[in-house]
Each structure stands twice: as structure tokens, then as C-alpha cells.
Amino acid sequence: MKILTFGIVLCAIFGNTAMAQGAPAPTVGVVSGIDGLSTVSQGNTLSNLTQGQTILQGARVVTSSTGTVRIVLNNGCAVSLNRNEAVTIDSRLGCDALTAGIVQNNAAIAVAGATGSGNVVNSSVLGGAFFATGAVIKEISGNNPAAQALSGS
Q1: Calpha distance 58→60 (Å, rounded)
Q2: CB-based contacts of 70: which residues, under 8 Å, 6+ apart?
Q3: Considering the chain, what percentage of its residues have pLDDT values greater than 70?
Q4: 11-25 burial, b for 16+ CB within 10 Å, e for fewer?
Q5: How many of the other CB atoms lie within 10 Å of CB of 143?
Q6: The whole model's pTM is what?
Q7: What is the pLDDT of residues 63-80, one digit of tens each?
Q8: How far apart are CA 58 and CA 144, in angstroms?
């Protein structure tokens, strides 16, 4: 029962993140060139990048093994990501510091809805995934004393 309650609480927290966020982050740049698949995480959404898309302060941009992207910020900096790279956009940084923040992205990334442009994954999906995981753990732990001890049942 505790896992079920925990799953419901996670759904409530992650599903309603947008309500607690307040004012949206300011727009600090725009995608000026893109090739292949690249994604951006802005606030509580994940979407495929498109030409001309606006970029918000704090956005996390990630290129796939087929993607490259160029972003021009309002402060005049241009950031280019090659394949399998990622950066968090912070317009308060100088151009050199922002470019130095680009990291190699060697982890496998699952992108929901990667077949079109502008697809969005709401955080409610994540809450549902946590809930389903909790239910599976509860089911598996049925006759396992160690698992029961961890789950508190």
C-alpha cells in the first residue's frame, strides 16, 4: 500500500509541476540552423528543435548521433553543437564560457515522439512512469523478505 501511495504522490508532484513554476523563463535566443535530430528541455517540456524555435533561459539542448544545431542568443553569442553534444543555455555567461560548457553526450537517450517536429512530453508522463514502476516493485516484492523490508510492507 505504501508503494501505491508513493506512486500517487509522485504523479501529483510531477503532473502539476507547471502550476508551481510561476513566471516562464525569458526568451534568450533562437535556433538559426539545424540538421538531424536535436532536442530541448525547457521548463517541464521536452521537444524536438525546429528552425526558428525560441530558446528560453536555462534550456538544456541535446544533439543526437545525427544532429547538429546552431543557436544565436540575444546577447550576440552563437553556440554550435555537433553530434552527441549538450549544453545548458545561460545568457548571463560570456560567449567563451558558454562554449566551454558544451559537453560530450555519450549516454543513450530515448526521445518520446521523435518522429515529428515540436513534439512535447509533459511531466505527467514521468509521474505515470514512476507510478507504474512502484506497482511493479510492489508486485515483485510479494514473497521477497528483503524487498518487503525496503518497501516497508
Answers
A1: 6
A2: 31, 32, 33, 34, 78, 79, 80, 81
A3: 55
A4: beebbeeeeeeeeee
A5: 7
A6: 0.57
A7: 999 999 999 999 999 999
A8: 43
